[in-house]
Write a structure and sequence with these properties.
This protein is an alpha/beta fold. The chain contains 8 helices and 5 strands; from the N terminus they run E-H-E-H-H-E-H-H-E-H-H-E-H. The longest helix is centred in the middle third of the chain and has 25 residues.
């Protein structure tokens, strides 16, 4: 059985990545793929508990280094119990975030040396590399405005200062430029417009997804 594909939708706050990850899964299913939808941190019972700590620790005193190690602990379970078995079974995995978020948020955002993060992340992932990162890009002010209009902004990342979010966006832009398996997609348009851009990138890299089953 051919190995499945692993696609990750990344982006800073308010870029619409959760919406677009859902739309991408629907598109891939319509093209005949068997798709597993998941998210990070999370995707497993252990990961979801860690997610709650990382996003909503009531005292807001989770140190950057602790935050990093918690996320990597969740990732190790996520890769081994969700992603790898799905790929080995020929299924496609579309995840709302993966390891590029760690370099953008804990590296650029929290200012932990990315050279120190890299070997720890490699251990957590077991060397797994996504087939494609779709990185949604949006000016920080617009992303934060979207969050406010949607009534969001209460978790530890959403409520961080603007300079943190600017560093995160810079991280995504720079990381996308250095990863041959990443594409930076402008997220300023309507959800339909952004979806069409993503579809174009996916079809160009995976031509087998161009046909709609039953369409």
């Amino acid at each position: 059985m051919p190995r499945g594909r692993f696609i990750v939708v990344e982006g800073a706050e308010g870029t619409g990545k959760t919406t677009q990850a859902g739309r991408l899964r629907a598109f891939l299913r319509a093209s005949g793929r068997e798709v597993v939808g998941t998210r990070e941190p999370g995707g497993t019972s252990v990961g979801e508990r860690i997610r709650e700590i990382v996003l909503h620790a009531s005292d807001h005193q989770v140190l950057p280094e602790t935050e990093l190690l918690l996320i990597l602990a969740a990732r190790s379970a996520f890769v081994r119990t969700v992603v790898e078995p799905a790929l080995a079974g020929g299924r496609w995995v579309v995840s709302d975030r993966f390891d590029m978020s760690t370099f953008a948020y804990q590296g650029y955002g929290r200012e932990i040396d990315v050279e120190r993060i890299a070997p720890l992340n490699a251990y957590a992932t077991g060397g797994l590399v996504p087939d494609l990162y779709v990185v949604l890009d949006l000016p920080v002010e617009e992303g934060m405005g979207r969050q406010r209009r949607q009534g969001k902004g209460d978790d530890r990342f959403e409520s961080a200062a603007a300079d943190f979010h600017h560093r995160v966006r810079q991280g995504y832009v720079e990381l996308s430029a250095t990863h041959g398996n990443a594409v930076l997609v402008p997220a300023c348009g309507s959800p339909d417009e952004v979806e069409n851009l993503i579809r174009g990138e996916v079809v160009s890299r995976f031509p087998e997804t161009s046909g709609i089953v039953g369409g």
